[in-house]
Amino acid sequence: NKKHGGTQHWVPWSHAPVIVAPTGGCHAPRYRRLCCITCTSSLLFTLFAAIVAVTYFDQQHNNIIHEYVARNDDVAILSATFYNRSKSFENNTVILLLNAHQVLQLKHSELLGISTNASGSMKTSFRIFPVVQQIPFYCKWVPFIAVGQVSEGMTSLTLSTGEKGMAVPIRRPYSENHDVVACFSPLFLNERWQLLLLTAEVYSYYGAAMHFYVRSMITDLFLILTQYRNTRVQPWPAVRLGSKRANSVEFDPNIELEFRNQAAAMTDCLLLHK
């Protein structure tokens, strides 16, 4: 309302002054187009950068694989287990446990061998399988198993990937049966003896067999573990390549193995107690 000389006059709402905020007028469509162009350009740039990055990574990965496939490489045989009778494998089967570069399967789908018994020799091929299906790209060396059938009553085995052969010592799995077998990953130093002894006491109380893989350990603790019933303590040394090697002398495969070769140790325990 308005006051005129003390008299109040009511002004209709339709005649009241209205303040309208500026909306940009004809400039609003221009801002929208600019925003759309900016967002589209950013999206295209991000997509282009992603394509370039993936292409570069793929080229680097292919170059690495090509480099290792083209050159010779070392293979470390950890064990060879002979099953003359088994529920899991065919009769007269040998399982090789080995460490090698992760592209071993690209180089060799199988290893060649010759098994010998009292009657003569027989050629054998060992199919190679990775122990870990999801191979970590950051670890150059990984564990494999190679499965092959040998001659019955085998006395010796020679293995090769080419012209030269190498004699492989053979072992047999344990014959005793256990309801539960606890396999312990490679231990080193193990100064926390309280935890280890408590674990051993609990497993022993419930009748489980224990298989320890040891890299290094305090002498007194080692002697205590050997006193438990149904317990085996097996050394698990680092992989040592000899003087005749494909890689340079500076290359240390233990740096390229995951968790002190833990997957290979667990596989070795399974093969022994299977």
In summary, what is this structure?
By secondary structure, this protein is an alpha+beta fold. The protein has 5 helices and 12 strands.
Give structural notes:
Its EC number is 2.4.1.-. By secondary structure, the chain is an alpha+beta fold. It has two domains: 28-70; 75-273, no CATH class. 29% of the residues lie in helices and 28% in strands. The protein contains five helices and twelve strands. It has helices at residues 28-70, 104-107, 193-205, 219-225, 262-273, and strands spanning 2-4, 7-9, 75-83, 93-101, 110-117, 120-130, 141-149, 156-160, 166-167, 181-187, 209-214, 231-235. The chain has a seven-stranded antiparallel β-sheet, covered by helices on one side. A three-stranded parallel β-sheet has the order 10-11-12, sandwiched between helices. A two-stranded antiparallel ribbon has the order 1-2. A hairpin with a 5-residue loop joins strand 8 (156-160) and strand 9 (166-167). The longest helix is centred in the first third of the chain and has 43 residues, at 28-70. It is extended and about 90 Å long. It starts with a strand and ends with a helix. The mean pLDDT is 81.
Tertiary shape: extended
One letter per element, helices H and strands E, the order comes to EEHEEHEEEEEEHEHEH
Strand portion: 25-35%
Count of strand segments: 12
Question: Which bin fits the share of residues in helices?
Answer: 25-40%
Q: Biggest β-sheet, characterized?
A: 7 strands, antiparallel
Q: Cα-atom Rg, whole angstroms?
A: 35 Å
The mean pLDDT is: 81
List unreliable stretches of 5+ residues.
none
- What count of domains describes the coordinates? 2
For the terminal residues, how far apart are their CA atoms?
100 Å
Count of helix runs: 5
**Structure class:** alpha+beta
Strand order of the largest sheet: 3-4-7-6-5-8-9
